[in-house]
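Supplementary Methods S3. Input chains for the assembly prediction are listed below.
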Amino acid sequence: MEEFGKPRAAAQIIEGKKTDNEAVYVAIAERVRADSTGKGQLTSLELIKPLMQDPGKIQSYLGEMKGNEVYKDIRLITAANGGTYLYSEKVFIRRDAEKLTLDEEVRSRIINQVREDSGKKESLTPVNKLGALIPGAELDKIDNHLALMSGDERYKDIHVITNRKGARYLYSEKFLTCNYAELLARAEANDPVAIIADTVRDDSRIYPRLTNLDMFKAPVFKIDFDEMGKYTSELTKSPEYNDIKLIKASTGAIYLYSDLYFNPDLAKATVEWEEVGRYENP
Amino acid sequence: MAGGYTGKTLRVDLTTGKVTAEDTLAKYKDFIGGAGLGYKVLWDEVPAGTKAWDPANRLILGVGPLSGTGAPCGGRVSTISLSPPSQFELPAVGHMGGHWGPELKFAGWDSIIIQGKANAPSWISIQDDKVEIRDAKKLWGQGIFQTTAAICADIGNDCHVAAIGQAGENLVRNACIMNDRSHSAGLHGSVMGSKNLKAIGVKGTGALKISMDKNAWRDLVNAYLPLMGCNNQGVVPSTPQSWAEFYGSTRWTAQRGAFWGRATPPFDVGICPADDLNKMGLRTHKGIQDHGFELGVKYTTRIGGCFGCPIRCHTAMDNPNLEQFGVSRFQTNTCNGVSHGPGWYDPAPTGEKLMLLKQIGSALADDYGWWSDYGQSGRDFVYMKKKGLFEKYLPAKEYAAIPWKLWEAQSPDFSKWVYKAITYKEGEFGQAFADGPEWMEKRYPEMKEAHFKEYELQSWKFGMAKHHSTEAGGQVGGLLNLMRNAHAQNHTHSNFQGSGLPIALKKEIGAELFGTPDAVDNNNDVKPMNAGKARFAVLSTIYQDLHDSLTLCNWTQPIWASPVKERKYRGDPEAEAKFFSAVTGINKTRGDLELDGLRIVALFRALTMKFMNEADMRTKHDIVPEWAFTYPKDKEPFTPGHAKMDRADMEKAKDMFYEQLGFDVKTGTPTRAMLEKLNMKSVADELESKNLLTV
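Predicted structure tokens for the full assembly:
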């Protein structure tokens, strides 16, 4: 039986063999040197903990390494925010490493902001507002930060999403699914007609299903439902959205679909099923 | 001794007053329990030609080994007997949730077999191993609510009571049995009535043994719970929510603002993500599902359910407007238990008026103990009114006395009239509707033809309602409505179809379960028959009988899909076998258990053949209504927008279905080889002796 939910083991098995201390030192050194040389980055202690059977003894490992000639280039540095990193002195002088800790701090604050926005507010974090939120996260530097974050396994839950107006947002998939983030990003474009059309097209393509007009009352869409008549009128008149059709059930409820993906006859049957049939066949 | 079982089946002979105990496993092990046990009793003990109300008929209330153990959704009891609503009085199974079934197990009994007829109104008291047949003269004539209250006052408020109302006493064919206020089993209420049996009150102080080590059992249950969805095993929420990749038309109606509006204080169920197992019971705001958002929120007090079920799907409501009509403002029920009320009206009203009619109907039917046959009675009424059949068949005086003005006004007072007329068989109208839709066909030839031909009547065959037929999976749903002797009530296939997942995912999972992605169509977009669809139908048939025998809830299982993205939304098709093995200690694989299920299906089939005295089930019993091939008139089969079937394709569907079941394709019946392989040689011998065995 699949052991669903079993706690993950803290120890990492390296190449099928149990680690001994020397193997741990080697693994740490290799990782730090690779990050310093290959990526031009510091190595967070969080990233090397999985290399150890007992991450609680990390200071002990580092202490032992410090006294070993083979690893004398491996240095520790602490950022102002308390984050601790390793680097290879063969690649960076201390001053360079200090500068890099500032970048790590910026990224750390970006991540915290994104996770807080995603988790507590269920909202996206606008990329173009990061500079105002976090000094050092100015627009001209942000892409560099984002590129480094995307390769960092500490931040693998962080994703960028772009809406149809080209605006970019960050979210954490720990708290928001990518489909939900897509809806949020659409809403940020503040183009209700486009929001409706894109959502209807997705519903018709993916499930496929009709979209109940009332669905757009959901807060995620940020649509003023009192104006829905105006929006649906624009939809039906716009050549860009001429695949979007309205259909009315016998109950009076209005649904939409895209005839790019949804057959009109199927739409007629489905709308009656949704409004009437489903309740007659509970 | 296998875990889950008590080891004892209770037999009560109401004619002689004799109460005995039998060894459950010695006689019924191959049939698991519940429905399987009941079918075996009918096979062994009830001669062909017996009628539903004959004392020789048996009524079995069968509980399977998983009910009462804490296995999720293990709280049901199956009722098995010859079915009075059936125009042939064929064997059929009803079932109900609540707490009665587990309580019977706690009292030390796996099942109860009732035979004979008491010489005066009686009720059975079961308090552990103290079983008594008691006088029910003071209960006779009372509704279910008063009966339950009286028995609780007698043997304690901690008892659970399965009772009939006046409908069952008066031999209304569609009378039901009800326990724990809102949990009803259709079909067999009048069988109890015919035996002068008013109720069975049960109180148990024992416990059930589970074979598995308790820590391993806890781990098994904890591994299973995250795979559950909402009521009817929807696995996505009904609105866009931040934790969910998908959303759709499911019963996962929990959302911000989804209040239990009549709770004190009103309670917002809020967002209930799949990984928050503490909120599983809040996922289905059934008030919203059954009554719409506004009214559901307004009138719901809370959502209740059955023993051992974390999902909860019975809506308790408080509507003060009901009191003016002489019924309690507090009503509880679910699905068609609340929706049959407006079915008498055409057009049905909307809004508060609709709500009132739903709850009046529920209040009256639940107390009288009457079941609408999944709304068929209401549909028949509307049709007959429309076609002038009441004027044709009712005596003029009777017709004139019917309060039609109340009907036109969609007044709850008309509902009160109609439910009473049926319960007390008042006049030709009352008698006709008391006999129910199937017997209506014998009474009024137009209805026989209409049931067969008219889509609006939603009847499948012999006058019984369709229940998740071709609109749920095309041929798959159609096949599932063939073999039963009452409305099919199979949710295995419809749950999977309605999971809310995108079609691509359903097809992927379908390919793993049924051998091909083509087994799964979109509803109302049916493609030609294939072997995968046959497999889908066969497994749905088997699992329905398995659930009715294990006694698990077919509305929440099997778990073929799940809300767990990390599992790519796969559920666990091995779950029933795992739980059976864990509880009983009898190790069975999924294949083993499905073979047991097939045995039960085959026995049920043999029972039908025996009581119908028919060898050709394919053409004489497994009937597809004409409307399935003709509605809608202007569409061709296999085009989008409907579920119209093609005759040749449906015959091919039957061929494939029977073949995969192991039946003779020509007659749709079990072969000797199949029955012997299933350890039922004696069944084959008896069928042969009656010239019913064709291969």
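Residues 648 and 654 of chain B are 10 Å apart (CA to CA). Chain B has three domains: 8-203, 284-461, 467-557+589-669.
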